[in-house]
Request: fold
Amino acid sequence: MPLFQYSCKQCGAESEILVRGTEAPACPKCGSTKLEKQLSAFNAVSGKPSMPMAPCGAAKCCSGQACGLN
Reply:
């Protein structure tokens, strides 16, 4: 179930909405279904890797290359 960012064409509110299957999302502020899907940036600044990485003492990191952090 993907989470999308929308902008409401009726009230201008911006929100992230969980979309299940084929249901039409509605604005949580005014209830309008006249929403425009926005481009959202990948969350790369959280400081947490999205996939587990091998510890730096390991022979290879998750990229398959020798770890350059040793």
